């Protein structure tokens, strides 16, 4: 049981002194260190001369220059204490011992005691290796207490104390000598262990501040990465939206222009009227395409646009109410389109309705560009009573692939990206009988990142 307690105590001490921590506290000699050393030097020399003036140093046989040398060398230890903490602590221990043996009155000066305390404190607070710190500071402490014990055992301090307290009554509970020994031991315990423990607490505080600074730097770096990622995502969104807008309107322009050219070639009055109508559709589609492109590119032109103005400036946000107008525009190009809704489609969110609109727009643009179809069907279904509530849009046609009209694939890629953002199921490909189908099923209970939903 005792061995277990010793092991636990050793483990707690190792944890407190962080002997397994490889972090190193970097210290350097600064102007402040020189100023502190100079200030302490002046205070120490002034104290020394004041004590000399009182006559306390009359019993000392040491020359004045030796006393001054002891004071100056002690104050000099404070300058490199953070750059060479353990070396300074060792030198302070040697200085304290040598001065205490030959110049005890100088060693006992308050400024000198402050110098030693700060040196020991710095050894614990600034040591690079915590294991070396424990060894060095432990050695200094044991040596100092051995010195104190030696003074009690064979020194003249006890005899001098007995002579000075021979006429004192003392305490009935404890004798003067015992009280002197206990008081001296307690003061030195507080002195040395206070310096070491206080230095370790300061080291742990610096360690924690370094961790917080590292975490702050990591967060700042991640924030910058997220910002760059957001910019990239926004530009990809603009590129996809621009592709959808341009593809749709260019397809309308191409079909109407071709129809107008054929009518003009015939030269009949009725055909001229139809050609004029086709050219009007070309003009309207071109104007609408330019308007939407300007809205989309507003963000690229003006990076200062904030989120408050983004809804009006940087992108169009089609709603389901705009879908019939899109279908009428497609019908005007000669493609018959049937539209059917099933379920409470009016309850769809704006972001989801925008995705549905763009998917329908891209699918019908592909039908006009790459298919021989003369008929298409758009079905929008919303089922909130299903085990997994969903909204589904399906676009089918009755045509075959038109040769020589291969596209870039960006349109269908955009459809898949919109679906992936909302974890939707995608079915794109030829139908078993005839024609082509684009079907996307969005789960209504799937959470979508706000930024992704707004962007798309």
TrEMBL record:
One of its GO terms (molecular function) is kinase activity. Residues 351-446 form the Histidine kinase/HSP90-like ATPase domain. Its EC number is 2.7.13.3. Keywords: ATP-binding, Kinase, Membrane, Nucleotide-binding, Phosphoprotein, Transferase, Transmembrane, Transmembrane helix, Two-component regulatory system. It comes from the Bacteria. The keyword Nucleotide-binding applies. The chain crosses the membrane at residues 34-51, 84-103, 109-127, 134-153, 173-199. It catalyses: ATP + protein L-histidine = ADP + protein N-phospho-L-histidine. Signal peptide: none annotated. This is histidine kinase.
């Amino acid at each position: 049981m005792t061995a277990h307690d010793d092991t636990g105590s050793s483990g707690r001490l190792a944890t407190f002194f962080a002997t397994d921590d490889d972090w190193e506290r970097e210290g350097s000699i600064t102007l402040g260190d020189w100023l502190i050393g100079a200030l302490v030097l002046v205070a120490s020399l002034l104290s020394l001369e004041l004590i000399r003036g009182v006559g306390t140093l009359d019993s000392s046989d040491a020359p004045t220059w030796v006393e001054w040398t002891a004071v100056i060398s002690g104050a000099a230890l404070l300058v490199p204490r953070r750059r060479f903490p353990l070396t300074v602590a060792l030198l302070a221990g040697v200085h304290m011992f040598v001065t205490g043996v030959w110049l005890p009155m100088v060693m006992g000066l308050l400024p000198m005691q402050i110098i030693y305390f700060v040196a020991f404190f710095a050894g614990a607070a600034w040591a690079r290796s915590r294991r070396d710190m424990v060894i060095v500071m432990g050695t200094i402490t044991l040596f100092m207490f051995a010195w104190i014990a030696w003074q009690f055992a064979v020194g003249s301090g006890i005899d001098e104390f007995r002579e000075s307290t021979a006429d004192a009554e003392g305490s009935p509970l404890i004798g003067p000598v015992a009280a002197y020994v206990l008081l001296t031991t307690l003061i030195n315990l507080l002195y040395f262990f206070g310096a070491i423990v206080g230095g370790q607490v300061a080291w742990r505080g610096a360690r924690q501040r370094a961790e917080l600074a590292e975490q702050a730097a990591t967060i700042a770096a991640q924030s910058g990465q997220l910002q760059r990622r957001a910019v990239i995502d926004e530009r990809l969104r603009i590129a996809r939206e621009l592709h959808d807008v341009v593809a749709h309107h260019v397809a309308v322009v191409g079909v109407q222009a071709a129809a107008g050219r054929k009518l003009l070639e015939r030269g009949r009055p009725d055909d001229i009227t139809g050609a004029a109508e086709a050219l009007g559709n070309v003009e309207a589609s071109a104007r609408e395409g330019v308007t939407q492109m300007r809205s989309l590119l507003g963000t690229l032109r003006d990076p200062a646009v904030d989120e408050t103005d983004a809804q009006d400036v940087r992108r169009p946000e089609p709603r389901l109410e705009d879908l019939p107008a899109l279908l009428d525009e497609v019908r005007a190009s000669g493609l018959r389109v049937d539209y059917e809704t099933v379920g409470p489609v009016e309850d769809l969110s704006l972001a989801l309705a925008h995705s549905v609109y763009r998917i329908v727009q891209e699918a019908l643009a592909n039908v006009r560009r790459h298919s021989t179809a003369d008929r298409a069907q758009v079905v929008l279904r919303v089922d909130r009573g299903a085990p997994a509530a969903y909204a589904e849009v399906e676009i089918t046609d009755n045509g075959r692939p038109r040769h020589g009209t291969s596209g870039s694939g960006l349109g269908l890629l955009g459809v898949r990206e919109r679906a992936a953002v909302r974890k939707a199921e995608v079915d794109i490909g030829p139908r078993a009988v005839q024609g082509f189908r684009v079907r996307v099923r969005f789960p209504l209970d799937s959470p979508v990142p706000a930024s992704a939903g707004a962007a798309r």
